[in-house]
Amino acid sequence: MRPGGARSMRGIHAATSLLQALDAMAGRRLWLGGALLAAATVLMGMALLGLSGWFITATALAGLAPATALAFDVFMPSAGIRLLAVGRTGARYAERLVTHDATLAVLAALRERLFRHWSRPRAARLLLLRPARLLQRLTADVDALDSLYLRLLVPGVAALGAALFSALALGAMRWWLGLLAGLWLLLAGWGIALWHGLRTRKAAIRRALALEAMRLRSVDLVAGQTELAMAGRLPAQLAAVLACDARAAQADEQLYRAEARAAQAYGVAGALGLGVALLAMGWLVERQQISAAVAALGILLALSAMEPFAALRRGAAEAGRSWLALRRLGAAAMAQPQADAAAPAQPPAGMALQLQDACVAYPGQPVALGPLQLCLRAGERVALIGASGAGKSSLLALIAGELPAASGSVSALPCSWMTQRTELFADSVRDNLRLAAPGADDAALWGALDAAGLAADVMALPQGLDTMLGEGGLGLSGGQARRLALARLLLHPARCWLLDEPTEGLDAATAHDVLQRLAQAAGGRTLVLATHWQREARLADRLLWLEGGRIAGQARRGTPGFDEALARLRPDGQD
Length: 575
What we know:
Blueprint: H1 3-26, H2 28-62, H3 66-71, H4 75-118, H5 123-129, H6 131-144, H7 146-173, H8 175-223, H9 225-231, H10 234-286, H11 292-305, H12 307-310, H13 312-317, H14 319-334, E1 351-361, E2 367-377, E3 381-385, H15 392-400, E4 407-412, E5 415-418, H16 429-433, H17 442-451, H18 455-459, H19 478-491, E6 496-500, H20 508-522, E7 526-530, H21 534-537, E8 542-547, E9 550-556, H22 560-567
Parallel strand pairs: 3-7, 3-8, 5-6, 6-7
Antiparallel strand pairs: 1-2, 1-4, 8-9
């Protein structure tokens, strides 16, 4: 099979998988309830129009003769008109309520599934590489899927109901008239929608891709404007954003023109159907096979029968965008949860970590770390030292389960990882802390802040624990942000702490205070630190130095090798 054919098959499989997932999420409430209510709304509207036309015509004819006027029953048709009017309004309200409520619930469930899929091990690294792309998947791509139901399935079922109703009503007059009407509505109504969808497919995809590229470049422009300005690339980045916007505008213009042509096609099809209905009704009246009132009913049915098909126009125009979203999201939505796939197994009793010939390799690259042989007892404190790129952070990621072992085995206690970067969110101080312990009460939060040396600073904030922070902890100094991260670490119940240069970027006095508090709070926990500072390495009972992704040596506290390795690290006073 050619590569293009293989990609198409994968796309069809991904789209089918996602449709099955949406069907499982929605159930009958979405696929049947909303669609049937939409069909009922359309049918009541057509019946209301036809019955009103018949009633007005029949009343006018009955008024021509006094005897007929006295015998004519105006109450039953009037009651039917009122019933259809009220029923149509109620069905429309129920249809909107059911379809939109169910659609929003399904899309929310889909976003949760996608977010969980992208939150598995290694997801953070991928997110940092392409944040705008994943944001596009969770927002625009998921939003594109509502067209499948709200603008294709629901109008399609309603249009089918309109065609069948028209065919039955006209077929009651003459069977061949109902057959012709049903075939014309189905062929013309769905044919125009199919033609419109095929014509706009490429333009819709180009528009989606252009908007994604514009979002990506805009994010880069905002996040890296300082670096772009210093490198003299700011005008070029602005030009790239404008070029993406121009491509999106060009695709929009093509879509608008195609939609106008589709509207004209539906207008012509409706006019042709109405013209044929007028001729047929006139011929039947002339031959005295139907009354003028029944002819009015048939004409008004023909007038309204094409309108439900015209509602497919917008859904057909967005079908290309929806198909692209199905292809993109299908594999991720159907993937089984893998959050614990790379989680290390539990070590033997009394041990915190065991690595046996463990290796880490990235796709298409040679082994980046290992093979490693390492054992840590519960409560032991170990510092990983070595030059930048030696594999310290990768080893921490392997222990935490963030990186899977390409070979060998890893068994470790559940760990809490304090990375080099302080990850704080645009939320309250309270909720930033509760990421580590969702059920923690205020007493526990204040205890952790006090242990981290931040309680007095938080008390001085305008709303205390409820004070809102900006993105990345904006509103706190670097030292305060690091202490807040330390307080969050203290709240986590894990018995093993992984610390990646915990005092990097802090002044010497703040760094020593943070380390002292960390050592006091650690108690009997296992500590694994990656560091190039003497002040951090002094917390360790054992030093392991890494070279080229392997453990080149180790030394325990109290041995000459320990002091020699410590002396090679950055001195405490050097900031």
